[in-house]
Write a structure and sequence with these properties.
Blueprint (H helix, E strand, L loop, with lengths): L9 H39 L4 H6 L1 H11 L13 H7 L3 H33 L7 H16 L2 H12 L3 H24 L5 H8 L4 H35 L8 H9 L3 H30 L1 H4 L1
Helix pairs in contact: 3-12, 5-6, 5-8, 5-10, 6-8, 7-8, 8-10, 9-10, 10-12, 11-12
Length: 298
């Protein structure tokens, strides 16, 4: 037996429809006002920063011309044509560049590993729900902020002066910046865990470190590993730039080719870097999906 739904009187329906229309109109006005303020702030920022669109469009041809030149060999042929001689000429330094790329990968790997270990330890100290006391949490957060605020290239310059040219400054620069960045991300993951296991262990008399080991780590480990792999992808790109200041890797040959106007060498090195990063991205993406179980859901 079905129950009839009572129908509201027409004047009440009209009132509700009017209220709904007014609410939608108010939301739309807020959206338009917010958009107008955003555009105004964008224009003011451009004026203060002296951004000149006319200069950009006037000189845009220089960029496209440069791209065309780096993909042209000395005799005028297009770099990378599927002709064996042209490819051999274009990639004349393949063996040397691959060794430098391998060095770049090792710099990124070691720097990421060291930074991830430090971020792992500090994440429990800086997480609001896990820190032993508020003072330690405050100091840990400020420490992480410092290391992720200073750009990697600045750390690399400092360490090049201190330790000389080579991969060591690059490893240290990436490790410190990774420590600050991953420590923040790890702490945010830890702040979203289920606290019931922690409370249960605390009630049995477990120490703080035992609570972290048996109640927190099992909940956060897969996300920690996923973030670390993602950071490794970022650090491979960063390690390629470390060579610009003499901190080892392929970047040193790249900046030398740019400064000496070895156009085809620039394109060859860029293609090798891009191909390497693409392979790493695919591999780490597969690993991240395995860790969080996406491959089993699809």
């Amino acid at each position: 037996m079905s129950t009839a739904v009572p129908r509201l009187p027409d004047h009440q329906l009209s009132a509700l429809a009017g209220a709904y229309a007014e609410a939608v109109a108010a939301k739309r006005r807020q959206l338009y006002i917010g958009l107008a303020l955003f555009i105004l702030a964008y224009i003011i920022a451009g004026i203060v920063a002296e951004v000149r669109p006319t200069t950009f469009f006037t000189n845009l041809w220089r960029f496209t011309d440069y791209i065309g030149r780096i993909f042209t060999l000395e005799q005028g042929a297009a770099a990378g044509r599927f002709v064996l001689f042209d490819v051999v000429e274009w990639m004349w330094g393949f063996d040397k560049w691959m060794k430098l790329l391998w060095e770049t990968l090792l710099i990124a790997y070691v720097g990421t590993l060291i930074g991830a270990i430090g971020g792992f330890a500090f994440s429990f100290l800086s997480a609001r729900n896990l820190t032993p006391n508020s003072t330690i949490g405050f100091l840990a957060k400020r420490w992480l902020e410092f290391f992720r605020t200073v750009p990697e290239i600045v750390f690399a310059l400092i360490f090049v002066v201190a330790f000389g040219l080579g991969p060591v400054p690059g490893v240290l620069a990436i490790a410190l910046h990774t420590f600050g960045a991953l420590g923040k991300q790890f702490a945010e993951v830890a702040e979203n865990i289920d606290m019931k296991p922690v409370d249960g262990l605390t009630a049995t008399g477990a120490t703080w470190s035992e609570c972290m080991r048996f109640a927190v780590v099992p909940q956060v480990l897969s996300n920690y590993a996923s973030y670390a792999l993602l950071r490794f992808e970022v650090n491979v790109r960063g390690a390629a730039v470390m060579g610009f200041v003499g901190a080892g890797g392929i970047g040193q040959d790249l900046v030398e080719a740019i400064r000496k106007f070895y156009y085809s060498d620039v394109s060859a090195i860029l293609v090798l870097i891009i191909a390497t990063v693409m392979i790493i991205d695919l591999a780490t993406e597969w690993l991240r999906h395995r860790l969080i179980g996406l491959d089993q859901r699809s």
